[in-house]
């Protein structure tokens, strides 16, 4: 089996909280430089930069998984990772139907930029991507699965916007494929706090909002080959997932 | 109508960020879900919450809230303080619970 390094939680300039230089092109160049084999582009409640990222990735010898970080009505974040742009767009359509109406206040919240492969601005997304959807966490996870994606509970160690912060625990009836621990928490500490949830695989990732943060936490997948199906098998325990050294530069 | 400064004086809240203290308090909204506050709070309302994240400042600015009161002894994050300072949003804290503060505030606003 071969080892592939993954950072499955990266925001682009489409997320109002991310730096404007987080364009798909620069993210991919940085990831390649850092020796990362597979990344997921996961913007808040939108995937409008995913298609271009996948297109760029094909030329650069890296795998990009089109994803979204969806906010449930309880304000818990979930990573929805897919193997195709069509599927993430299907998910986006559902999410958009359940976002509140209104126009993003760019001065307060930040810009939501859709770019092309040359780092040029195509348009500004005017939806309030910052807000919660009116979908329950369970509805979101079930929908991700019905489309064939992977559902990961984002940064369960965070005190806001995590399943644990919003529910108090990981509800047993929600079928997460994995739990994510943020870069803020070291492995040993995570084990002592969340050890009871070891029945579900764990990942850790950068949740990068700045280029410098990309790959600050990664996991290794041990797979026969780098495909989405093999990654899925890793989450089912048929392949191996391992945390890499913390605070990697 | 009472101003933010009057409320502080009457119920004894700790000032973490002093923004516009002369803003009128038109009422109160209580919620820890930012999206709920976005949807239902009204201009001039005082917001009682447990949240300490910088996004509370953004919500207060967008909705024109008069101030934010963080209860249960929680303190705003460093970034929240910085953002509130730059946006001129008042953040008050208290060791009292949301229930206690709401009760005190209800009596004051009712007697006005």
TrEMBL record, chain A:
Transmembrane segments: none
InterPro entries recorded: PHP_dom, PHP_domain, Pol/His_phosphatase_N, Pol/histidinol_Pase-like
Annotated ranges, domain Polymerase/histidinol phosphatase N-terminal: 6-74
Pfam families per record: PHP (PF02811)
Gene Ontology molecular function terms on file: 5'-3' DNA exonuclease activity; 5'-3' RNA exonuclease activity
SUPFAM superfamilies on file: PHP domain-like
PANTHER family: EXONUCLEASE, POLYMERASE_HISTIDINOL PHOSPHATASE N-TERMINAL DOMAIN-CONTAINING PROTEIN
Protein name: Histidinol-phosphatase
Lineage, uppermost ranks: Bacteria, Pseudomonadati, Nitrospirota, Thermodesulfovibrionia, Thermodesulfovibrionales
From TrEMBL, chain B:
Domain of life: Bacteria
Domain DRTGG: start-end pairs: 34-105
Gene3D superfamilies from the UniProt entry: HprK N-terminal domain-like
Coiled-coil region(s): none
A Pfam family recorded for this sequence: DRTGG
Subunit and interaction comment: Homohexamer.
Full protein name: DRTGG domain-containing protein
Native source organism of the sequence: Dissulfurispira thermophila
